Amino acid sequence: MAEDPHAPLRRDIRELGVMLGKVIREQGGEALFNDVERVRRLAKESRDGKAWARTELTRRLSALPSAAALQLARAFSHFLTLANIAEQHHRVRRSRDYRRAPTAPPQPGSLEAALPRLLAGGVSPGRLLEAAGALSVELVLTAHPTEITRRALLQKYHAIAEGLARRDRPDLTAQERAAADEALYREITAFWHTDEILRRKPTPLEEARGGLLIFEQSLWETVPAVLRELDRMLRQCCGSGLPPRSAPLRFGSWMGGDRDGNPNVTQQVTRDVCWVSRWIAADLYLRDVAALIRELSLQSGSAALRDAAGDAREPYRAVLRRLEQRLVATRAALQARLDGQAGDDPQVLWETKDLREPLELCFRSLHETGAGAIADGRLLDVLRRVDCFGLALVRLDIRQEAARHTALLDSVTRDLGLGAYGDWTEAQRVAFLAAELAGRRPLIPRAWLDAGPAGAESPPPEVREVLATCRAIAALPSESLGAYVISMAGAPSDVLAVCLLQRECGGAHPLRVVPLFESVQALRDAGPILRALLALPWYRAHCRGLQEVMIGYSDSAKEAGRLASAWLLYTAQEEVVAACREAGVRLVLFHGRGGSVGRGGGPTHEAILSQPPGSVDGSLRVTEQGEMIQAKYGIAGIAQRTLEVYLTATLEATLRPPPAARASWRTLISGLAGRSMDAYQEVLRRPDFTAFFRATTPEPELGLVNVGSRPARRQADSGLSSLRAIPWIFAWTQVRLHLPAWLGIGEALEMAVTQGKEDELAALYRDWAFFRSTVDLVEMVLAKSEPELFLRYNAALAEESLQPLGLELARKLAHTSGLVLRVSRHGELLAENAVLRRSIQVRNPYVDPLNLLQIDLLRRVRGGDHSETTVNALLITINGIAAGMRNTG
């Protein structure tokens, strides 16, 4: 009988649970330990269908005083976190098992699997090598508020994962194994005594500092390891390795640059974040160069190296020590800027070429003098880091809402007596902007640029901040900045306005301007907008044959529902691809995906390969948001796997794009999308829906959870339209209904089945990657949903007049589940994914008590109990349920 590959995971979870139980007994007392065990057993028996256990569990939890509820919530929340850590470690272990087993096939999605398959599918070695050398995958880290865990705890989680890895070593002695267990126990004890709650909202600078730690934590080491594997596989498959200076992986960031609806992100924040990012890079390179100095003690060297080193006996060390001194000066200068001090040191490194040149000199010398094996070790890794990270570490995007640029230009034209830009038609705006861009006169008065406008007609501070941002962009090192993203873009003038503002503010290296199409209407108009823009002679010359377009998954899904949004995004990409092809312009698509299915999340490989043909043409930009940054990159082994999958999927989508959707498929999916959106919006437009949503979910209390610097709402009202997509989805995840990911889909599938198209739906699922990926993600969310638990929220928290809506939604969920199974032809939800199904089953008895506690705590808080203990207990349940659900926003 074959050994169960997941037995080690169950062992780890069991042993971590035992350690946690010991900590609870020792630190919380015997009574708390006994309460936890009783609740755990009742939750399991309730899951087994025993009604008495469900009744007793509810009674016991509702009777707990807030202090006891707090400790119980902490216990279950901690267990779910430990289970997550164990699962992440197990992913690394399974990946290593794949690579180690001599007879096992390569792991799906790995370079070892993908490259030979591409060759076997007819791609020539030369074409594969060319595509790999030109590959450009940029991952853009954002600070969207879905990471609910404190940085101090994330560091402890990392230590626990390392402890689990240490225990896996087969050569451990009994004493070493005992020491490893003791170290784990100490970490769990420290974990228990650490405050889980974010006591205040982080500032944007704090968000950036925390987010950028992921590079030191894993990515600095992982990137060269992945590129080394890519080089190895290219040599094996194509006879030649990764071309010099290739940078298939790069990183961007929105942390400190995303000011869309966040008044806390100012021009000073943007400057400081750029300095912080550069400081971290300089510090990391200093460690690398110090290691190279220790390693390269060779006395021989090329003539060029000796010329650079003078008469030094150890020329490599002489050259590298000068570089080390410059890095020290660079770090000090950046710290001075962060401290508000000025001063320029000629030693400071501002351009990446000045960092690269001495390293390349050493690399060439080693190869020329017969020591190439040394060059191809640590030094090559450092050079690949330079190509990936540069001196900036990440390139910071600026994001601002289109309306802010309109408001600024309106103030300018009114002040100059040119009329009211805000009242002009789109044709008038384009004509005005095109004329200004083609001319040379300055439009914005110098006084505005220096100190902002004076007088009664002064625009509000948020409009003046747009000007200050453009001035900051012009003054910062160009290597520190990426794109200027326009959120809520809906017209060519939105792009031209930013081009003009950057020119007016004196930028020698203006940022590329990227429209973000995110609303339903903007996605429908994306093709015509781009065609009109690319038809303008000035803009065609300005974009230099390259256009980047961002598509947003969140707002369209919130507005139209998951299925309609997916089809809108698909067709918008087709239109954008066609518009750029017609204009002879290369397109880069930037995908604004979240972690949850409701915001475009899901398995990376399937998501990329299900895009329309031509939309992934050797390049890809994509956001990595919130808690997904730690989930995908927090552990080196998982980070390596994640980066490999991005590379292989992008290569596959480039070299073997999916076939175009057949006309019959398009007709069927268009009908499904239309019916789905109608059904979705019918529910959201009900006059009682907003009150129902705010009553049955913890959305009103999410403001207590200090998970990000950005407000949860675009405007200060309680309506759905102003609520951002992240808290919208987060709230439904907490109550385990996951409404945004499936609402409307049941009605769409029922319509098709009623029309006799069930077999067509099944064929669509079988033959079309886009539809199959969409249905599979919905199936996963349905498997995570717990309508019975949601009905507890409905009964306990909603007014009697609102409760019928909750019952209706629970029926819709059950009906949708049945129809999805008919389409996929699966016998049960997640029939094809036993590992995930088992993971959900393991978590349920630990998440269920947190939901029941949350219901009661919400009732207490809304009833006027705002004591610190009660509020803290509520916040812990939010943390714990988020841990249990994994991808929350």
Outline of the structure:
This protein is mainly α.
List keywords for this structure.
single chain; 889 residues; mainly alpha; eight-stranded parallel β-barrel; 8 strands; 65% helix; globular
Radius of gyration: 28 Å
Number of alpha- plus pi-helical segments: 37
Shape: globular
Give the strand order, joined by hyphens, for the main sheet.
1-2-3-4-5-6-7-8
Number of strands: 8
Strand content: 5-15%
Contiguous runs where pLDDT drops below 50 for at least 5 residues: 597-601
Portion of residues within helices: 55-70%
Largest sheet: 8 strands, parallel, barrel
> CA-to-CA gap between the ends?
41 Å
Q: On the 0-100 scale, what is the average pLDDT?
A: 89
Helical/strand content category:
mainly alpha
Describe this structure in words.
The chain has 889 residues and is mainly α. Helices cover 65% and strands 6% of the residues. The longest helix has 35 residues, at 66-100. An eight-stranded parallel barrel has the order 1-2-3-4-5-6-7-8, surrounded by eight helices. It is globular, with a radius of gyration of 28 Å. The protein contains 37 helices and eight strands.
Question: How do the helices and strands line up, and which of them pair or pack?
Answer:
Elements (H helix, E strand, L loop, with lengths): L6 H22 L1 H18 L3 H12 L3 H35 L10 H10 L4 H10 L1 E7 L8 H17 L6 H19 L11 H35 L10 E5 L13 H29 L7 H7 L5 H24 L13 H17 L3 H18 L5 E7 H14 L10 H13 L7 H6 L9 H15 L5 E7 L4 H13 L7 E6 L2 H15 L2 H7 L2 E7 L1 H7 L1 H22 L2 E7 L11 H6 L9 E7 L1 H7 L2 H20 L7 H22 L4 H8 L28 H10 L4 H4 L2 H10 L3 H10 L1 H16 L2 H11 L5 H22 L9 H29 L5 H18 L4
Parallel strand pairs: 1-2, 1-8, 2-3, 3-4, 4-5, 5-6, 6-7, 7-8
